[in-house]
Write a structure and sequence with these properties.
The protein contains 2 helices and 20 strands. The protein is mainly beta and 235 residues long. The strands form 5 sheets. Strands 8, 9, 10, 11, 13, 16 and 18 form a 7-stranded antiparallel β-sheet that branches. A 4-stranded antiparallel β-sheet has the order 6-1-4-7, with no helix packed on it.
Length: 235
């Protein structure tokens, strides 16, 4: 999971012992691998004063050869991510390589991921050589691609092998996502992702068994200080 905030804050805790607050401009990269538990809560300061929160959390598939690696978590502060002007928009490379800039995020597959704010609007072209697969997601505001309006909450999948001109309205927040085509499809059920149904069923069984045994010496454990958990849907 790749977490990026436009505004607000989230306190992240996980079973690896990580406990930190993410704020706008930074990136949290959590690798689930063979299994991890985490909580995301409003920090104490914001809980007391109130907050408006807006962000994007993207799930990125691991290559098959990496599906069962050990879980990991890396926080990348805002000042470590490349910033650049994208036709008038303020952009950051959140992962991979984009528009001649490279993010410090390590990932064993070709990825192309950018977050941008267009306070004054923007006009730019997404080159055909930027990535094999490319998409534009509008988080707030609107964009126009080849005369077609893309509104907030919509994702435009871009035609491969073509330069794509984009016009972005004033005040728009958007993401560019894509990269190297993944090595086959993935199955998703609830919070579990795998290449086959059998692995999903094993993860579900492990979750049930962990809950039944109080999260002690079980396949899944809870972050320190946490006792809440979400049952499997339907349980």
């Amino acid at each position: 999971t790749v977490t990026f905030l436009y505004e607000g804050a989230i306190r992240h805790k996980d079973t690896l012992g990580n406990d930190l607050v993410i704020r706008p401009g930074a990136v949290n990269w959590m690798t689930a691998g063979r299994g991890i538990c985490h909580s995301e809560r409003t920090p104490d300061e914001e809980r007391a004063s109130g907050q408006s929160m807006h962000g994007i959390q993207t799930w990125v598939a691991l290559p098959k050869d990496y599906a069962e690696i050990a879980p990991d978590f890396v926080h990348h502060p805002a000042d470590t991510l490349p910033e650049f002007d994208l036709g008038g928009a303020h952009a950051r490379v959140l992962a991979g390589d984009a528009f001649g800039h490279s993010a410090p995020v390590e990932f064993p597959w070709g990825i192309w991921y950018v977050g941008a704010d267009a306070d004054n609007g923007a006009e730019f072209t997404i080159g055909a050589d930027e990535a094999e697969e490319r998409a534009l997601y509008v988080a707030f505001g609107e964009a126009v691609i080849d005369g077609e309006l893309i509104e907030a909450g919509q994702m435009a999948i871009l035609t491969p092998g073509k330069d794509i001109p984009v016009s972005v309205a004033i005040g728009t927040r958007f993401m560019l996502a894509g990269g190297q085509p993944m090595d086959g499809p993935r199955k998703i059920e609830w919070n579990f992702v795998a290449t086959d149904t059998e692995r999903l069923e094993q993860a579900k069984a492990d979750w049930r068994a962990s809950a039944a045994s109080g999260w002690q010496n079980t396949p899944f454990t809870l972050p320190e200080g946490e006792d809440d958990y979400i049952p499997l849907p339907g349980d």
